[in-house]
Amino acid sequence: MLKNINKDNIPEHVAVIMDGNGRWAKKNGLLRTIGHKNGVKSVREVVEASVELGISVLTLFAFSTENWNRPKAEVSALMELLVSALNKELPTFQKNNIQLQTIGETNALPKGCREKLTEIINETSGNTGLKLVLALSYSSKLEIINSIKSIAQKISDKTIKPEDINESLFANELYTSDYPNPDLLIRTSGEYRISNFLLWQIAYAELYFSPKLWPDFTKADFLEAIVEYQNRERRFGKTTEQIKN
Ligand code: FPP
Questions:
Q1: What band does 127 get if pLDDT is binned at 50, 70 and 90?
Q2: How many C-beta atoms surround the C-beta of residue 178 within 10 A?
Q3: Catalytic residue flag (residue 28)
Q4: Contact between residue 92 and residue 125 where contact means Cβ atoms under 8 Å apart
Q5: Strand, helix or coil at 102?
Q6: What is the CB < 6 Å shell around ligand 1?
Q7: Domain edges within the chain
């Protein structure tokens, strides 16, 4: 599969909605939390493939603000899983020059989780390879509302004028201000939804939907998504002729 990939057309930023852990567990007669545990293996595969391809940013939707409404035991299990996965993966991050970052309302996470994230973010801050961005307690609508509030405050403080507002000023207020917009958004589990993920940022992303449940999603599946992306014509509103010339 790797040989089918054009090294000159690698997406800079890939975002992934990792969906289907619960259904995978049910299908296999297991607890939902075991589904999440098995999902970590797929995270590893996708991160490894991203490093090999030289992708700059990989954003993973690990926990939405809506996920707080799940049963308490499942939420706790997910938080514990995150801490244990981060503990285990630190040597891999260092070896592969991966920088961990987060987007979302991370101050809503349990203390142990926040502390572990801060530790790994600090430990990997000097790494210059893949930026691995975990969306945690993330809601795109809330991110947009917070940006509007911040802009309104600046207008009220008279540090900017309403006519200064443009796309780049707005984008600068988002969690993702340091990253290019996603070129490719992948969602697993055969669902065709965006689920409040990076709504502003994916305006021109290519969308790829895989029928595989997240724990079944492998490196080969990720590479297949990249090949499909490379076969798309990204016109950004222009005509084919304009793109070709
Ligand atoms: C969606 O499946 C998945 C999640 C809400 C959590 C994703 C978390 C992991 C893969 C593990 C930890 C992550 C990291 C980054 C180490 P679902 O529960 O919505 O599945 P369902 O739709 O089948 O119920």
A1: very high
A2: 12
A3: no
A4: no
A5: strand
A6: 18-23, 36, 39-40, 43, 60, 62, 67, 78, 81-82, 85, 134, 214
A7: 2-139+182-233+240-244
Give 140's contacts (C-beta < 8 A, 6+ positions apart). Answer: 196, 197, 198, 199, 200
Mean pLDDT across the stretch 28-57? Answer: 98
CATH 2.60.40.10 fits 2-139+182-233+240-244, yes or no: no
Contact 100, 62 (CB under 8 A): no
Helix crossing, 32-53 with 219-231: angle to 10°? 50
Can you give the pLDDT at residue 245?
79
Please state the separation of Cα 86 from the chain's center in Å. Answer: 16
Query: SS3 of 234, please?
Result: coil
How many whole angstroms from 21 Cα to the centroid of ligand 1?
5
* Contact yes or no for 134/193 (Cβ under 8 A): no
147 vs 170: CA distance, rounded Å: 7
pLDDT at 243 (0 to 100): 84
Confidence (pLDDT) at 244: 83
pLDDT in tens, 171-216: 999 999 999 999 999 999 999 999 999 999 999 999 999 999 999 9
Q: Identify the CA nearest to 132 among candidates 46, 39, 200, 19.
A: 46
Q: How confident is the model at residue 170 (pLDDT cuts 50, 70, 90)?
A: very high
